[in-house]
Design goal:
The protein has 549 residues and is an alpha/beta fold. The chain has two domains: 52-227, Bacterial polysaccharide co-polymerase-like, CATH 3.30.1890; 262-504, P-loop containing nucleotide triphosphate hydrolases (Rossmann fold). It contains 20 helices and twelve strands. It has helices spanning 22-28, 30-50, 69-73, 86-94, 97-109, 116-122, 143-182, 192-209, 230-255, 262-269, 281-284, 294-309, 329-342, 359-362, 371-375, 381-384, 415-420, 422-434, 472-484, 513-519; strands spanning 55-62, 123-127, 133-140, 215-218, 273-278, 317-322, 347-351, 386-394, 400-406, 437-441, 460-466, 489-497. The protein has an eight-stranded mixed β-sheet with strand order 5-12-11-6-10-7-9-8, sandwiched between helices. Helix 2 packs antiparallel against helix 9, helix 5 (97-109) packs across helix 6 and helix 12 crosses helix 13. The relative contact order is 0.13. Mean pLDDT is 76; it is low at 1-18, 66-70, 77-81, 392-397 and 501-549.
Length: 549
């Protein structure tokens, strides 16, 4: 019933649908939660396995600040406006490539060959918000090597940061001395000269030994246990995956505009769901109606009964359409007609989709002649129709029940013009006079205008929609279009839904189907029809009407 074809996109608002409870959403999207949880658990397991033999050691650096306004004004330390970014700046200083290079050289001098890239891989630098302490975590398969790496890295970081401040202080000190020398002799000890001398005195210690920041407040320690707990890591990974999966499932639900339930289909089209056809491979394989699974056949019988008895007057003619191709309208039309025939009605199925005809290929019929030739007056209606036996069951008169099928025939140069012709209207009128039910399979009305003119010749429109495929905007477009055309929407067939639980047995063959049909005012299906030609003239002889080509 579904199709891989994608319908055209329309800039329309989605049809309003009822919000589902969270548990119902999660039940429907459980596969998302499961997949994400498994992937997160697998990633956690891989991480735990890769680090199962590692030890971790942590060293800590303290970046001290000073309240000296002169030093802050000179740019040696950040002032209060930049205090919020101080922690990030400290991390960037410690986590620089220069520190990794210096650490690598120091380790090589101690007989341990570790490249700067290896140092970066084994070191993790972090800090907490609004703190001056930077944590340096080192991992290694040896506890002592992990402690050694953390200590040396912290020491190199402190030396580099302190050295940078010394270089900056010396440069500023030289500038301050030059400014002092430029002042006249009598101004060097008063006013601006006094302030410059005070700043120089403060800068000399920093230029000689540095500001003393950062300092190592904790060297790397020798750990006694390996890092992490594999079981705990995996459990935490799975829990994180579940939470993430739930979020993705809810997000997917909000973005999904497909109609997932018959109730949503009914609300979107503003029409009742006359039947829900279960998803079945037999329908995709175009299995004859008599061989369909019981629940599938009963769904089409229910559709036929709703059309016949749910209204004051039985539906004698209808067109079957959909919001786009691939919604199962042709399958619905065929099996509805077949179900009606097995119920004792005289039925004709008209394929009015001349642009993409499929009935002949699907159900092993002759592709020509058909509707096209009949409308152009090349043959009579009777000559164009092909009899099909949907159920090999004879009635008391010894007649078999036939479904008359009028395939599209050869493709005309202009299908639209042919469908708008007076001959098409006369053809439908003739068929309605000689049959209990006329089912017309049409192209999707939102995409092809061929079938719009047929709306005034039938009792109503039957819409085929595919559960989990039809989208709200598509349904809204078709609903509004049919409303603007003042079309009578009989209802919707929900394809690919879940069958209602109940009895699941095949009915016993009826005895005397012909009399039952006559008792309901229906023409026995085996009775030959005498339709006229749509181009005018006397009724044509139904020669060959009960024979399979």
């Amino acid at each position: 019933m579904s199709s891989s074809q994608t319908a055209s996109n329309y800039a329309l608002e989605p049809a309003t649908r009822e919000s589902l409870p969270v548990l119902a959403v999660l039940r429907r999207r459980a596969w998302i939660v499961l997949v994400v949880a498994l992937l997160a658990g697998a990633a956690a397991a891989a991480f735990a396995y890769a680090n199962r033999n590692d030890y971790a050691s942590t060293a800590k650096l303290l970046f001290r600040q000073t309240n000296s306004q002169e030093v802050q004004a000179l740019g040696l330390l950040p002032g209060s406006p930049d205090a919020d970014n101080l922690s990030n700046n400290n991390v960037e200083v410690v986590d620089s490539r220069r520190v990794a290079d210096a650490t690598s050289e120091e380790l090589r001098s101690l007989g341990r060959d570790l490249s700067p890239e290896d140092v970066d891989e084994k070191i993790t630098v972090s800090t907490k918000k609004d703190t001056d302490i930077v944590n340096i975590a080192a991992t290694d398969t040896s506890a002592r090597r992990a402690a050694q790496l953390a200590t040396i890295y912290a020491r190199m970081a402190a030396e580099i940061a302190n050295g940078d401040q010394k270089v900056l202080a010396r440069r500023i000190l030289r500038n301050m001395v030059a400014q002092l020398d430029e002042l006249p002799s009598h101004q060097r000890f008063i006013g601006a000269g006094a302030r410059i001398r005070n700043t120089i005195e403060r800068l000399r210690p920093i230029a000689e030994v540095g500001p003393g920041s950062p300092i190592m407040i904790q060297s790397g320690f020798v750990p006694t246990t390996k890092i992490g707990n594999p079981t705990r890591t995996i459990v935490l990974g799975v829990l994180f995956g579940v939470v993430l999966g739930i979020g993705l499932a809810l997000l997917r639900e909000q973005a999904d505009r497909r109609l997932h339930r018959p109730e949503e289909v009914s609300a979107a089209f503003d029409a009742p769901v006359l039947t829900t056809v279960p998803r079945s491979r037999a329908l995709k394989r175009n299995v004859p109606f008599k061989n369909l699974p019981t629940e599938v056949a009963e769904a089409f019988r229910m559709l036929q009964m709703n059309l016949r008895f749910a209204r004051k007057k039985p539906v004698r003619s209808l067109i079957v359409t959909s919001s786009r191709s691939g919604e199962g309208k042709t399958t619905v039309a065929w099996n509805l007609a077949s179900a009606a025939v097995t119920g004792g009605l005289s039925v004709v199925l008209v394929e009015a989709d001349m642009r993409r005809p499929t009935l002949a290929e699907r159900y092993e019929l002759e592709p020509e002649p058909g509707l096209s030739e009949a409308l152009q007056g090349e043959i009579t209606i009777t000559e164009a129709m092909q009899p099909v036996v949907p159920l090999e069951l004879a009635n008391r008169n010894g007649n078999q029940r036939y479904l008359q099928v009028l395939v599209a025939g050869g493709r005309p140069p202009d299908p639209w013009a042919l469908m708008q012709s007076d001959a098409m209207g006369r053809l439908l009128d003739v068929l309605k006079q000689h049959h209990d039910l006329v089912v017309v399979d049409t192209p999707p009305i939102p995409h092809v205008a061929d079938a719009i003119s047929l709306l005034r010749h039938v009792d109503g429109v039957l819409v085929a929609a595919s559960v989990n495929s039809t989208r709200g905007p598509e349904a809204r477009r078709l609903r509004d279009q049919l409303a603007s055309l003042d079309a009578h929407v009989l209802g919707v067939v929900a394809n690919g839904g879940t069958p209602v639980s109940g009895y699941g047995y095949a009915p016993a063959p009826p005895d005397g189907g012909a009399q039952a049909a006559e008792g309901n005012g229906a023409r026995p299906a085996g009775t030959p029809a005498e339709p006229q030609s749509p181009t005018g003239g006397e009724p044509q002889s139904p020669s060959g009407g009960d024979k399979r080509d």
